[in-house]
UniProtKB/TrEMBL annotation:
Protein's name in the database: YcjX-like protein
Originating species: Octadecabacter ascidiaceicola
Alphabetized InterPro entries for the sequence: YcjX-like (IPR007413)
Top-level taxon of origin: Bacteria
Pfam families from the UniProt entry: DUF463
PANTHER family: ATPASE, ATPASE-RELATED
Length: 471
């Protein structure tokens, strides 16, 4: 374990030195990580961002675009031949079809390179020609990000934490019954291991569907080619003092360590540790709808995983000595188009408060963080309705999987985030004084003029924060 850690550190350091020394002689590269938990909208965000950088008329808050300094933007092959390409063209085709539909969500890591030809700004800009800036967008599942917190835990600690929170989550009874029928101190049998792993995986999927965020190990939810392998065939077990060498407990402990060594650590070393800028997409409205426990689980999850970003400013010395660090992190509450703009400030304030622990930890380490409410693709229009003599701001759009239009009001978000976070921290099961609803909208048919990207809410502001200083 120590040798592996040292080797990983040397590899990152050599890569950082090479990148630092060659940087003055090569085109600058920004590696933007895009992640978020399930259904937060990663695929749509990347597709809309790329489309709006290629056609920049809807990007007035991106200063380099508004000033005309971005002369052209084009797609080209990504530098890493071993990583699947983000399927931008097919995703855009889904969103812009005559009858548009949502593209498939993120199931694995993928990458896409955009090259921007930019005229420099500043006093001597007239004496310089345009330069090329490469934007490498790295898309990866948020479930994999949560796994990074496992690197600092042993099997006993992870098992205790998982079993402790299980009673408050759905579909736990089947796993608890399966666990009660076995003796982890006795000899290992593969059919028993598979039964435990299967019911535990079903519990994780049910918890995710119910709006919970921390559902580790993440590859149990998105197994890919590892499905059915021993590295994904384990489950949490109650602590046993001095378990026998060939017991079920010992074998699960071994597989847990193998999962960290063969699944989590390579992802960190090969992809995650090379990111410069990061956006974390968060379905705050979905968590609020799911209830106080889901909100508290999201708050804890985002605080726990932020340490994996190793945040800090990308100075020459820090790259040389420590490797790359994320120096800007944007927490974006998605689906802002599900709210009338009158409630956007409340959504942003709740996101800031929800992620305060995570933000403070990043800023203490030198990274710049920001919270924002966005919609990468706007699917609704705003309207007003009279309700009990008052004017109510609603949004109107086509319901998913139907041809019906509906006006929607999710409930009044509080102006003071403590009214939500207080009950969440105290373990309340329901919101006492309000109900919050969510509705699934289909993407609206688009008629785009030349130069127009897809309609959005604050995507240009997000791009300015993440990329503006590099352009």
């Amino acid at each position: 374990m120590v040798i592996t850690t040292v080797a990983d550190t040397i590899t990152r350091s050599v890569g950082a030195v090479t990148g630092t020394l060659s940087a003055p002689f090569t085109d600058p590269v920004i590696r933007l990580g895009v992640t978020g938990l399930s259904r937060a909208g990663k695929t749509v965000f990347i597709t809309s961002l790329v489309a709006n950088l290629l056609n920049r008329r809807r990007m007035p808050q991106l200063q380099a675009a508004a000033s005309g300094r971005i002369q052209t933007v084009y797609l080209q092959p990504q530098p890493d031949d071993t990583v699947p390409r983000f399927d931008y063209e097919n995703h855009l085709a889904a969103l812009t079809a005559k009858q548009p539909f949502w593209p498939e969500g993120t199931q694995r890591i993928s990458e896409l390179r955009l090259s921007l030809k930019v005229q420099p700004s500043g006093f001597f800009s007239g004496l310089q020609g345009p330069r090329t800036v490469h934007l490498d967008i790295v898309d990866y599942p948020g479930e994999w990000l949560l796994d990074l917190s496992l690197l600092d835990k042993d099997f006993a600690t992870w098992s205790a934490e998982t079993l402790e929170r299980m009673p408050t989550r759905p579909a736990a009874d089947a796993f608890v019954a399966e666990l009660g029928a076995c003796d982890a101190a006795k000899g290992f049998e593969e059919p028993q291991a598979q039964a435990l792993a299967s019911t535990f995986t079903a519990h994780l999927n049910a918890a995710r569907e119910a709006g919970f965020s921390d559902c580790t190990p993440g590859r149990f939810l998105l197994p890919g080619d590892l499905e059915g392998s021993p590295v994904l065939t384990f489950a949490p077990l109650p602590l046993i003092e001095k378990p026998a060498r060939k017991s079920l407990w010992r074998e699960f402990e071994r597989r847990f360590e193998s999962y960290k060594r063969n699944v989590v650590r390579p992802f960190f070393r090969d992809h995650f540790a090379k990111i410069d800028r990061q956006i974390v997409l968060v379905d705050v409205l979905g968590a609020i709808h799911a209830g106080p426990q889901a909100v508290e689980d999201m708050r804890r999850s985002m605080g726990d995983i932020l340490g994996a970003f190793r945040p800090g400013r990308n100075s020459f010395l820090s790259q040389l000595l420590q490797g790359r660090r994320v120096d800007k992190i944007l927490f974006a509450a998605t689906k802002a188009d599900h709210l009338h703009h009158q409630q956007h400030p409340q959504l942003t304030a709740i996101t800031q408060a929800l992620l305060r622990d995570a933000q403070d930890r990043a800023e203490f380490s030198g990274a710049t963080t920001k919270a924002m409410s966005i919609a990468a693709l706007r699917t609704t229009v705003e309207d007003t309705r009279n309700h009990n003599g008052a004017s109510l701001g609603v949004v109107r759009g086509q319901l998913l999987n139907t041809d019906k239009q509906a006006a929607f009001y999710p409930g009044a978000l509080p102006s003071d985030p403590a009214h939500l976070l207080g009950p969440a921290r105290s373990g309340a099961e329901n919101w006492l004084d309000a109900d919050y609803e969510v509705m699934s909208f289909a993407p609206a048919p688009l008629t785009l003029k030349p130069g127009d990207g897809p309609p959005h809410i604050r995507l240009d502001r997000a791009a300015q924060f993440l990329l503006g200083d590099k352009l």
